[in-house]
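User: I'm preparing a small set of examples for a lab meeting where we compare how different chains pack in three dimensions. I only have the primary sequence for this one, and I'd like the structure in token form so I can line it up with the others. Please keep the answer compact; I'll paste it straight into my notes.
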Amino acid sequence: MRNRRDLLKSAGALAAGIVCVSCGMAHPAGAQASRREISIGGKRITTIDVHAHCVVTEVLEVVKGTDMERRVRELVAPGGLQNQPVGEERIADMGRDGVDRQVLSINPFWYGTDPAHAREICEVQNAGMAKMCARYPGRFSGFGTVALQHPELAAEQLESAVKRHGLKGAMIGGSVDGAELSNRKFDVFWAKAVELGATIFMHPQSQPEPTGMSKRLQGPGVLGNIIGHPIETTLAITHLIFDGTLDRFPDLKLLFAHAGGYLPSYAARMDHGCAIFPKQCEGPKLAKRPSDYLKQLYFDSLIFTGEGLRHLVAQCGASQIMLGTDSPIPWVKDPVDHVLTAPELSDGDRIAILSANAERVLRM
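Assistant: Understood. Below is the structure token output for the 364-residue chain.
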């Protein structure tokens, strides 16, 4: 797979007329990069990418000699898909894309660990994340890491990530060791997130097991990722709705990767299911229609086509969507242009998605 830098080198100039000016900008650590500035309706906006990966290489020392070591070595290896250091090359890639700021996150790999080890792993990563972000003020923020398999510890780690390290919340997986996120044991964590006003970014895990479809996702086509990831996200959101979590925590700020998986594309089916099969819908009485809960959740814009983004806005509202690139994984070229050129969006919608929603929700 070509890396993001190679893809961006071949990117053409923006064809649309909403536009940009390039300028040089000096960075605190000495990096110099051409920076494409985005303006909409004559207003310069700060574009914020809420879905960007990184690694903290120091964590390798913490997992040496464990069954996680091989996986972590792959993650932190130079040239790894998620390991683009916070430095000149990354800032140059952001500049070419017109991205002013990234909110960095780390995919969970530590859910099977005991409390003591999980505490050490997450502290090393949260301290490392804060240090990386501090090198370039105004260009990077971060989501913390928490040991959600131990909910009380995770709540403690979330508070430390936000108050001690200045992070925006935490990234979590779509399930935890087979437990759905709607399991009541996680309520202590959701309550802490609401108390802190922290945003929780749910990103599917990098293996097919959480979907319960590992056998069917084998074979060519990267099915564990291209099918497994959106299915895992769809399942997570659906359980949070029907199991009553979103009614118990209406002020919870949940952000979902990859445009929310498949659910926003077929949400109306939820509204009809319990009417057709009432005996299979015993559970908490919901405060509103299932599809209406999508309007209290947040989603990134990583849906690849303008029509897909237009539909996501129609279903969930422009106020619920933020720019997401999956950087440095080269899923999408010209992610800002994806928003600028999507059909039927107003200037206000585009500003909300590229800038205002993240500034408001993540308190940036």
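A couple of notes for your slides: The first strand starts at residue 20 and ends at 26. Residues 1-32 have pLDDT under 50 and may be disordered.

User: Perfect, thanks.
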